[in-house]
C-alpha cells in the first residue's frame, strides 16, 4: 500500500494549473505542486497528513509539496439534494514555476517562510480567507494574464497574514518526507484511513513488515507516545470536530470515531480534554452564542 502520486495535467502554454474538481475526488495522494483548494459544494471528511477534520462549503486549504491528502465527500446525508455534485476550485504551482530564484529574492522572505510552513498544510479563516476567496472568484472568470496577477495577489495575502492554522503535526510531515522510512509512511497511511475501525498493532506490523519491538520503539521515539495513545488522540480530535454538528448525538459520534462503546468514549475524552463530550459540546454552543 503506497501513497498515490497523482498530478493534474498542466496545459503547455500555462505556467500553473487552474482546475475545477468534481466528485469523485482523488484518493489518498500527494504531488510535487503546492495546492490551494476552495470547496465550492459538498461536505465530508478531510485528511491532510495526520489531521482528520470535517470539510464544508467555503473551506480554504493550502498544502505544500508531497503532503498526502484526501477529501472524502458525504454522498448521502439528510437534506442531500438530488443531482447534487460536490465541487472544488483548485490552484496548483511548482516551486520554480516563476523561475528558480523568484521565491529566493529578499523581498519574498515572508512568503518563503509561509511556503515552508505549508509542509504541514494550512486552513485559512477570517479576513484573509474572505480576501483569498474573493480573488479566486475573479480567477474563475479571468483570462490567463488576469489569473497570473490574481495569484500574485494571493501571494501577498500569504506573506502578510497570520489568519491560518496548521493542520498536520510536524512529526508526521517528517515521516512522510523521509524517503528511507517507507515502512512508517505505510503505517501512518493505514492509521489515517482506518482509525474509525478496530486497528490492532498486529495490523501495523503486517503493513510495515516490522517486529513488535522495532515498530514500538520507532513509533514512540518519533511521536513521543505509544501507538495506542496516538490513535486515541486522532479519534478524540475527530470527535471534537463532529461535536460541532448538533444534528449528531454523542453515541453516534462515539461509534463514528471508532469507539466500541459510549462509556469508553466518555472516559477517554474526559482524560484527554479534561471534560466530558457533552460539556465540550455545550462549551462550543455557548461560544457561538456569545459571538
Detailed description of the structure:
The chain has 291 residues and is of the alpha+beta class. It has two domains: 4-166, Jelly Rolls (Sandwich), CATH 2.60.120; 171-290, Arc Repressor Mutant, subunit A. The protein is 45% helix and 17% strand. It has helices spanning 109-117, 126-141, 144-160, 170-177, 182-194, 201-208, 212-223, 227-242, 250-256, 262-273, 277-290; strands spanning 4-5, 17-22, 29-30, 34-41, 44-48, 51-55, 60-63, 69-73, 87-93, 122-124, 164-166. The strands form three sheets. Strands 2-9-4-7-10-11 form a six-stranded antiparallel beta sheet, covered by helices on one side. A hairpin with a 2-residue loop joins β5 and β6. α1 (109-117) crosses α3. The longest helix has 17 residues, at 144-160. The radius of gyration is 20 Å and the shape is globular.
Would you kindly provide a brief summary of this structure?
The protein is of the alpha+beta class.
List keywords for this structure.
alpha+beta; Arc Repressor Mutant, subunit A; 291 residues; 11 helices; single chain; 17% strand; 2 domains; Jelly Rolls
Low-confidence stretches: none
The CATH architecture name of the largest domain reads Sandwich
Relative strand content: 15-25%
| Largest sheet, spatial ordering of strands | 2-9-4-7-10-11
Count up the domains: 2
The best one-word shape is: globular
- Strand-and-helix sequence, N→C? EEEEEEEEEHEHHEHHHHHHHH
The number of distinct helices, counting runs of at least 4 residues, comes to 11
